[in-house]
Amino acid sequence: MIITDLLGARVFGPDLLGYVTDVRFSLDTHSIGLPARLHGIIVSPHARSSSLGFERSGVHSPWPIAALVHWRHRGSFLVHWADIERLDERRIQLRPGFERASSELP
Amino acid sequence: MTTQPNDQGIQWIDAHLHLLDRQILDVHGLPIAVVDDLELSDVPEGEEIPRDTAPPVITALLSGPVLGARIFGGRPPRSRSQSMPWITIIDIGVVIKLAITGETTDLTWTERWVRDRIIGRIPGGRHNAGKD
User: Which domains, from first to last, does chain A contain?
Assistant: First the structure.
Protein backbone atom coordinates (compact mmCIF):
# COMPACT_ATOMS: atom_id res chain seq x y z
CA MET A 1 0.00 0.00 0.00
CA ILE A 2 1.18 3.53 -0.66
CA ILE A 3 0.26 6.58 1.37
CA THR A 4 -1.73 8.28 -1.38
CA ASP A 5 -4.16 5.36 -1.18
CA LEU A 6 -5.10 6.69 2.25
CA LEU A 7 -4.94 10.44 1.70
CA GLY A 8 -8.32 11.82 0.68
CA ALA A 9 -10.11 8.54 1.46
CA ARG A 10 -13.59 8.79 2.92
CA VAL A 11 -13.90 7.80 6.57
CA PHE A 12 -17.03 6.16 7.89
CA GLY A 13 -18.30 5.46 11.36
CA PRO A 14 -22.02 4.86 11.32
CA ASP A 15 -22.09 7.65 8.69
CA LEU A 16 -19.61 9.60 6.62
CA LEU A 17 -17.35 11.37 9.12
CA GLY A 18 -14.96 13.13 6.78
CA TYR A 19 -11.81 12.61 4.76
CA VAL A 20 -8.26 11.59 5.55
CA THR A 21 -6.13 14.74 5.36
CA ASP A 22 -2.97 13.24 6.79
CA VAL A 23 -1.50 10.11 8.34
CA ARG A 24 0.50 10.33 11.56
CA PHE A 25 3.50 8.14 12.28
CA SER A 26 5.63 7.73 15.39
CA LEU A 27 9.39 7.31 15.15
CA ASP A 28 11.54 6.13 18.04
CA THR A 29 14.70 8.20 17.60
CA HIS A 30 16.51 6.36 20.42
CA SER A 31 16.72 3.20 18.34
CA ILE A 32 18.56 3.50 15.07
CA GLY A 33 16.94 1.74 12.14
CA LEU A 34 13.45 1.35 13.56
CA PRO A 35 10.81 2.29 11.02
CA ALA A 36 8.13 4.92 11.48
CA ARG A 37 5.00 3.20 12.72
CA LEU A 38 1.48 4.31 11.78
CA HIS A 39 -0.09 5.96 14.81
CA GLY A 40 -3.36 7.15 13.32
CA ILE A 41 -5.16 9.09 10.64
CA ILE A 42 -6.20 12.74 10.70
CA VAL A 43 -9.84 13.12 9.67
CA SER A 44 -11.31 16.43 8.57
CA PRO A 45 -15.09 16.66 8.27
CA HIS A 46 -15.01 19.40 5.65
CA ALA A 47 -11.79 19.26 3.65
CA ARG A 48 -10.15 16.58 1.54
CA SER A 49 -6.59 17.90 1.75
CA SER A 50 -4.24 19.24 4.34
CA SER A 51 -3.29 22.92 4.35
CA LEU A 52 0.25 23.47 5.61
CA GLY A 53 -0.51 22.12 9.08
CA PHE A 54 -1.78 25.39 10.54
CA GLU A 55 -4.68 23.54 12.12
CA ARG A 56 -2.37 21.12 13.94
CA SER A 57 0.22 23.48 15.35
CA GLY A 58 0.46 26.63 17.39
CA VAL A 59 1.15 28.76 14.32
CA HIS A 60 -1.31 31.65 14.13
CA SER A 61 0.24 34.04 11.66
CA PRO A 62 -0.33 35.39 9.14
CA TRP A 63 -3.69 35.56 10.86
CA PRO A 64 -5.92 35.65 7.75
CA ILE A 65 -4.41 32.38 6.51
CA ALA A 66 -4.43 30.79 9.95
CA ALA A 67 -8.05 31.79 10.48
CA LEU A 68 -9.09 30.44 7.09
CA VAL A 69 -7.27 27.13 7.59
CA HIS A 70 -8.63 26.69 11.13
CA TRP A 71 -12.14 27.29 9.80
CA ARG A 72 -11.63 24.91 6.87
CA HIS A 73 -10.41 22.13 9.14
CA ARG A 74 -12.77 22.78 12.06
CA GLY A 75 -13.76 19.59 13.81
CA SER A 76 -10.69 17.63 12.68
CA PHE A 77 -9.70 14.70 14.88
CA LEU A 78 -7.20 11.88 15.10
CA VAL A 79 -8.25 8.24 14.93
CA HIS A 80 -5.78 5.70 16.26
CA TRP A 81 -4.78 2.66 14.21
CA ALA A 82 -6.53 0.32 16.66
CA ASP A 83 -9.88 1.99 15.85
CA ILE A 84 -9.62 1.30 12.12
CA GLU A 85 -11.79 -1.70 11.29
CA ARG A 86 -11.45 -2.00 7.54
CA LEU A 87 -9.54 -0.48 4.62
CA ASP A 88 -11.14 -0.53 1.20
CA GLU A 89 -10.30 1.39 -1.93
CA ARG A 90 -10.67 5.06 -0.97
CA ARG A 91 -12.87 4.08 2.00
CA ILE A 92 -12.04 3.53 5.66
CA GLN A 93 -14.45 2.03 8.17
CA LEU A 94 -13.93 2.73 11.85
CA ARG A 95 -14.81 0.41 14.72
CA PRO A 96 -17.91 1.14 16.80
CA GLY A 97 -17.05 3.30 19.78
CA PHE A 98 -13.91 4.70 18.18
CA GLU A 99 -12.11 7.50 20.02
CA ARG A 100 -11.81 11.00 18.61
CA ALA A 101 -8.40 12.22 19.74
CA SER A 102 -6.90 15.64 19.24
CA SER A 103 -5.28 16.15 15.85
CA GLU A 104 -2.76 18.65 17.23
CA LEU A 105 0.87 17.67 16.95
CA PRO A 106 2.16 16.68 20.42
CA MET B 1 7.41 22.84 9.49
CA THR B 2 9.29 20.02 11.23
CA THR B 3 8.96 18.22 14.53
CA GLN B 4 11.57 17.43 17.13
CA PRO B 5 11.67 14.31 19.30
CA ASN B 6 10.02 14.67 22.69
CA ASP B 7 11.61 13.74 26.04
CA GLN B 8 10.99 10.05 25.35
CA GLY B 9 12.70 10.28 21.98
CA ILE B 10 9.46 9.92 20.02
CA GLN B 11 9.22 12.04 16.89
CA TRP B 12 5.75 12.52 15.44
CA ILE B 13 5.66 12.65 11.67
CA ASP B 14 2.64 13.56 9.60
CA ALA B 15 3.13 12.08 6.15
CA HIS B 16 1.67 14.89 4.06
CA LEU B 17 3.04 17.69 6.22
CA HIS B 18 6.55 16.43 6.95
CA LEU B 19 7.46 13.95 4.22
CA LEU B 20 5.58 14.38 0.95
CA ASP B 21 7.11 16.85 -1.52
CA ARG B 22 10.24 17.24 0.62
CA GLN B 23 13.62 17.47 -1.06
CA ILE B 24 15.85 14.44 -0.63
CA LEU B 25 19.59 15.00 -0.22
CA ASP B 26 22.26 12.33 -0.47
CA VAL B 27 25.12 11.84 1.97
CA HIS B 28 27.09 14.63 0.25
CA GLY B 29 24.21 17.08 0.60
CA LEU B 30 23.34 16.96 -3.09
CA PRO B 31 19.65 16.94 -4.07
CA ILE B 32 18.63 13.72 -5.74
CA ALA B 33 14.84 13.58 -5.70
CA VAL B 34 11.61 14.75 -4.13
CA VAL B 35 9.36 12.54 -2.03
CA ASP B 36 6.33 11.76 -4.18
CA ASP B 37 4.85 8.93 -2.15
CA LEU B 38 5.50 6.55 0.72
CA GLU B 39 5.45 2.79 0.64
CA LEU B 40 3.83 1.08 3.62
CA SER B 41 4.23 -2.48 4.81
CA ASP B 42 1.43 -4.91 3.99
CA VAL B 43 -1.93 -3.96 5.41
CA PRO B 44 -5.05 -6.13 5.13
CA GLU B 45 -7.27 -4.53 2.50
CA GLY B 46 -10.86 -5.34 1.73
CA GLU B 47 -11.31 -7.35 4.92
CA GLU B 48 -11.81 -6.72 8.61
CA ILE B 49 -8.54 -5.93 10.40
CA PRO B 50 -8.12 -8.01 13.59
CA ARG B 51 -7.83 -5.84 16.70
CA ASP B 52 -4.31 -6.97 17.55
CA THR B 53 -2.89 -6.32 14.08
CA ALA B 54 0.38 -4.41 14.26
CA PRO B 55 0.25 -1.02 12.55
CA PRO B 56 1.95 -0.71 9.17
CA VAL B 57 5.33 0.96 8.91
CA ILE B 58 6.93 3.09 6.24
CA THR B 59 9.25 0.84 4.27
CA ALA B 60 10.46 3.27 1.61
CA LEU B 61 10.26 6.74 0.12
CA LEU B 62 9.07 6.79 -3.47
CA SER B 63 9.94 9.19 -6.26
CA GLY B 64 8.59 9.07 -9.78
CA PRO B 65 6.80 10.78 -12.68
CA VAL B 66 3.76 12.14 -10.85
CA LEU B 67 3.36 15.62 -12.37
CA GLY B 68 0.71 14.61 -14.89
CA ALA B 69 -1.17 12.59 -12.31
CA ARG B 70 -1.10 15.46 -9.85
CA ILE B 71 -2.73 17.74 -12.41
CA PHE B 72 -5.16 15.41 -14.16
CA GLY B 73 -5.67 12.69 -11.55
CA GLY B 74 -4.84 9.01 -11.39
CA ARG B 75 -1.61 7.46 -10.23
CA PRO B 76 1.40 6.10 -12.16
CA PRO B 77 2.09 2.37 -11.70
CA ARG B 78 4.33 1.44 -8.82
CA SER B 79 6.94 0.10 -11.27
CA ARG B 80 7.54 3.66 -12.53
CA SER B 81 8.69 4.88 -9.12
CA GLN B 82 12.13 4.62 -7.61
CA SER B 83 12.25 3.62 -3.99
CA MET B 84 14.66 4.66 -1.28
CA PRO B 85 14.52 2.28 1.71
CA TRP B 86 13.54 3.89 4.99
CA ILE B 87 16.66 2.46 6.60
CA THR B 88 18.81 4.84 4.51
CA ILE B 89 17.32 7.96 6.13
CA ILE B 90 19.66 9.71 8.56
CA ASP B 91 17.69 12.90 9.21
CA ILE B 92 14.16 14.23 8.71
CA GLY B 93 13.81 17.97 8.81
CA VAL B 94 13.25 20.69 6.26
CA VAL B 95 14.91 18.24 3.87
CA ILE B 96 15.36 14.51 4.14
CA LYS B 97 18.94 13.30 4.25
CA LEU B 98 19.97 9.84 3.16
CA ALA B 99 23.07 7.82 3.94
CA ILE B 100 23.62 6.92 0.29
CA THR B 101 25.10 8.77 -2.67
CA GLY B 102 22.99 9.81 -5.62
CA GLU B 103 25.40 8.01 -7.92
CA THR B 104 24.25 4.66 -6.51
CA THR B 105 20.59 5.18 -7.45
CA ASP B 106 18.75 5.39 -10.74
CA LEU B 107 17.21 8.67 -9.61
CA THR B 108 20.13 10.68 -10.93
CA TRP B 109 20.63 8.60 -14.08
CA THR B 110 19.44 11.39 -16.37
CA GLU B 111 21.84 13.90 -14.86
CA ARG B 112 24.74 11.45 -15.04
CA TRP B 113 23.95 10.64 -18.67
CA VAL B 114 23.79 14.31 -19.65
CA ARG B 115 27.03 14.94 -17.73
CA ASP B 116 28.91 12.04 -19.34
CA ARG B 117 27.45 11.97 -22.87
CA ILE B 118 26.78 15.63 -23.64
CA ILE B 119 28.49 18.04 -21.22
CA GLY B 120 31.59 15.87 -21.01
CA ARG B 121 32.11 16.09 -24.77
CA ILE B 122 32.12 19.87 -24.83
CA PRO B 123 35.68 21.28 -24.64
CA GLY B 124 36.25 22.14 -20.99
CA GLY B 125 33.14 20.25 -20.03
CA ARG B 126 35.02 17.91 -17.70
CA HIS B 127 36.66 20.78 -15.82
CA ASN B 128 35.22 21.39 -12.35
CA ALA B 129 35.27 25.19 -12.08
CA GLY B 130 34.22 25.09 -8.44
CA LYS B 131 37.50 23.54 -7.38
CA ASP B 132 39.78 26.31 -8.72
Answer: 3-94 (2.30.30.240)
What is the b/e burial string over A30-57, where b = at least 16 CB atoms within 10 angstroms of the residue's CB?
eeeeebbbbbbbbbbeebeebbebbbbe
Cis peptide before A62 (omega within 30 of 0): yes
So where are chain B's domains? 15-44+53-101
A58 at interface of B, judged by CB pairs closer than 8 A: no
Q: ipTM higher than 0.95? A: no
Q: Out of A2, A21, A53, whose CB is closest to B62?
A: A2
- Chain A residue numbers touching B5 (CB-CB < 8 A): 27, 29
User: Which tens digit of pLDDT belongs to each residue from B84-121?
Assistant: 999 999 888 899 999 998 888 888 888 889 999 999 99
Superfamily assignment of B15-44+53-101 in CATH?
Answer: PRC-barrel domain (2.30.30.240)
**Cα B40 to Cα B54: distance, rounded to the nearest angstrom:** 12
